[in-house]
Each structure stands twice: as structure tokens, then as C-alpha cells.
Amino acid sequence: MKGYFDRSKLHTLNRLGTDLPSHCDMTKTPGIDMTAGSLGQGLSAAVGMAIAGRLDRKSYRVYCALGDGECQEGQVWEAAMLASQHRLSNLIAFVDHNKMQIDGWLNDINAVEPLERKWEAFGWSVQSASGHDIGAIAQAIERAQANPSGPSMIVLHTTKGRGVSFAEGKLACHSMPVTAADVALALKELA
Ligand SMILES: Cc1ncc(C[n+]2csc(CCOP(=O)(O)OP(=O)(O)O)c2C)c(N)n1
Ligand SMILES: [Mg+2]
User: Fold this and answer.
1) When you count CB atoms within 10 A of the terminal residue's CB, does the N or C end of the chain come out lower?
2) What number of CA atoms fall less than 13 Å from residue 78's CA on the CB side?
3) Is the CB of 174 within 6 Å of ligand 1?
4) Best of 23, 38, 39, 72 to mutate for ligand 1, by most ligand atoms within 8 A of CB?
5) Predicted local confidence at residue 2, as pLDDT
6) Across the chain, what does the average pLDDT equal?
7) 131 CB near ligand 1 (under 6 Å)
8) How many other C-beta atoms are found inside a 10 Å radius of the C-beta of residue 138?
């Protein structure tokens, strides 16, 4: 987002009347191309972009990141079906599979397992990797890019808040308020 608005605007994040709401609004915030925040819509937008790329005979690929709690949304699976029907090999998606969503553990709320097999059943080429291993992610992306048969899903197994002592594995860290001291500690621990 560098250069789109003044840094001081960051202090208005999510405040009443702000033009920087936590759910991105393309009519309010410069640099936002798609209004978002309602879970489940991102993959539909990505499928549309991938179909458009094919119709326009463009060589770009579309990358889409989903949450595992987001996979509890029915709209995700509508988009998944359309992507495999159109054999969208220009579409590569990731799920951040941290087994948690905002209200708790996925398994306690609405289980998505077996997640990899669900994506396979919906016609996607599926790989799993540790979401904390950049090398493994890069390899999975290369394999997905070389797959001509249809859309690719890379399920990334992660731990929420990994590497930060006060956040790691804590359900409350979905949108945890942090003090300046917390930020300093987190940066030290992640260094
Ligand atoms: C349609 C819709 N329902 C509910 C919410 C509220 N909500 C925001 S984040 C979230 C949990 C998402 O879980 P996940 O995708 O696993 O993300 P994580 O908490 O792991 O970062 C929920 C339910 C929302 N934004 N949109
Ligand atoms: Mg999650």
C-alpha cells in the first residue's frame, strides 16, 4: 500500500467515520481494488479473474489466499466447482490451515476435515506443505505452475501467532490488541 495514502491515516484504522475500515472498501480507501471482508468472496473473484485471463488470452496467473474458517462458507465451494469445470490451470490458491477461526477451533464450530480430500473431490490438484517453511511453499508453487490440468490448491499447515510467545496457539490472537511493548517483544522474538 506504500504511497497510496499518508501514514498518519493508519491511526484512524477501524475508527468511526474512517476511510480506512478493517474490511477493505474500494469506494473509501485509495489502492483497494475490491471491497472485501465478507468471508467466502475472494475465491469467486479470483475465478472470475482467471476466466477473464483465459478469454483475453493473457498469460498471467491468479493467486488467492483463503482461511480455513473461510472454507466453512458455501460460496467457496461454488467457486471451487466452477474453477475445476473450466480447468483453470492459471489459478493457484492457498488455505492457511491453522485449525482456528475467530470464535474457536474449527472442529468445535463446523469441521472442514478432511480438507485436502474435499478439494480433491472438487476437482483440484492438491498439495500440502508447512506454512512456516518458505522453501516448501516455493516448491509447491513451482509444481502448481507446472500443472496444466486445472486449478491447484496448496494447503498450508500453520500455527496461529507462531513465533510470538504471547500469541502462539492462542484463540484470542485473531484480532488481539497490541501495545508498543508487545510489538517490540514480537519483533525481537521473530528476528
Ligand atoms: C461472511 C462472514 N461471516 C463472518 C465473518 C466474521 N469473521 C471474521 S474473521 C472470521 C474467522 C475466519 O477464520 P479463518 O478464515 O480461519 O481465519 P483465521 O481466524 O484463521 O485468521 C469470522 C467468522 C465475516 N467476516 N464474514
Ligand atoms: Mg483459520
Assistant:
1) C
2) 9
3) yes
4) 39
5) 79
6) 96
7) no
8) 11
Under 8 Å between Cβ of 132 and 105: no
Protein residue with its CA nearest to atom 7 in ligand 1: 102
28-63, pLDDT tens digit by residue? 999 999 999 999 999 999 999 999 999 999 999 999
CA distances (Å), 25 to each of 18, 32, 43, 144, in order? 11, 7, 18, 31
22 lines ligand 1 (CB under 6 A): no
User: Do the strands 104-105 and 125-130 form a parallel or antiparallel pair, or are they unpaired?
Assistant: unpaired
Name the residue with the closest Cα to ligand 1, atom 10.
Answer: 102
